[in-house]
Amino acid sequence: MLEATLQAMAMHPERKRSLDGMALGLQTRNKKRKLSQSPVFGTSAAAQTQLAKQRAQLERQKNQARQWEEARMEREREDRRRRQEELEEQQNSRRGDGGNALHQIIEKVFKKYWDMSFENLGGMNPFRIVIDRESAPHIAPDYFTVITTPMNLTYIKDKVKGRKYTTLTQFFTDIDLMIDNALKYNVGEANQYRIAAIDLQKMHKKIVKVLWKQINEKQSQQSKAF
């Protein structure tokens, strides 16, 4: 019987190759099954989970470090602003008529901002517009989801008239806030209000530079006179 079987297999090589292929396939499946049940493969999912946790923790640490750095920079800016205000107050007190002189300067400078017009908006000045809780739903419904501290030239005008500014830095800080709000809320390069805000920012920087130069030159002349 065995001899007959061997002879039959020898006489049918195609059948023999088929049987060999089936045997090889069974061996391969058995190896894969054993590997999948091995301790190494059993812990791969846990290892991946642990790696994902480590990456998430690293990302949280990076975000926290970034927040700390931003907070530090904000504190430094606030310290510089406060020192500048203190210096201005000292200079005003030494001049004697500091209050009136400062108010006259601020009034004159404020008029430059109030009288500005923007060609891309038909000559209007959008920075005079008041956006508050009452008007926002009608003109900018999502305004207070983006902006936390609104500022505009009308608010600034009231503070100028009420002599609320005791230093130039306080006045310029409100102008900066107004511009920052406009840039933050009006996104997109083609946004006409954003274009106006960028133009205002450029003019604002020039005004600040020229004014501080004039003040420093005047103080220098007064020092030489004494």
TrEMBL record:
InterPro entries: Bromodomain, Bromodomain-like_sf, Env_Response_Regulator. Residues 119-193 form the Bromo domain. Residues 56-97 have a biased composition (Basic and acidic residues). The keyword Transmembrane helix does not apply. It comes from the Eukaryota. This is Bromo domain-containing protein. Residues 36-52 have a biased composition (Polar residues). Keywords: Bromodomain. Residues 30-100 are annotated as: Disordered. Gene3D superfamilies: Bromodomain-like. Pfam families: Bromodomain (PF00439).
